[in-house]
Amino acid sequence: MKKIILALTVAVVVVVACSKKNSSPNTSINKPQAGNTISQNALIGIDSPFIPIDTANIMLNSYVSSLGTSSNDIKSFIVDADALRYYLSNSNIKSVKLMFAHKLSYVRSGNAGQPSGMNPNAMTIIITGFDKDNNYIYTPQNTVMDYTKPCPYTCPDGGTASGDLLPPVQ
Hints:
By secondary structure, the chain is α+β, with helices and mostly antiparallel strands. It contains four helices and five strands, in the order H-H-E-H-E-H-E-E-E.
């Protein structure tokens, strides 16, 4: 259960990071953009949806260490940022729910309802937004997001995103 909670926490960090509308070098996280409902005061402190990099690394290291060196268990899920921005452009979406699910290929292989552990060939995350009244909001095509790419297997092979931990800001 701890693995699932930590994996979900990592997924939330990825979704929050990918949903920034403007990621140019001149944009500071401490300067909310027009239309941003998160106040500058909420970016720091107990009620903040953001955590310091060193805190995230403590959490990430604990999870990765729990897997062991030869593990092929899921370390993360990668989400297409453009698809996420498209979906989150609906301003009625106030929160995003990340739900663990079995891949359709796993289900169709006769494994419906069978435990899969954290097998990246079996697991995915369904991403669905909901409004202030806690009602799901679908895309204009009445769909929700899937096609997360599991890491290992589709991990970045270069740059800082290829590591299991977050490098400090230089």
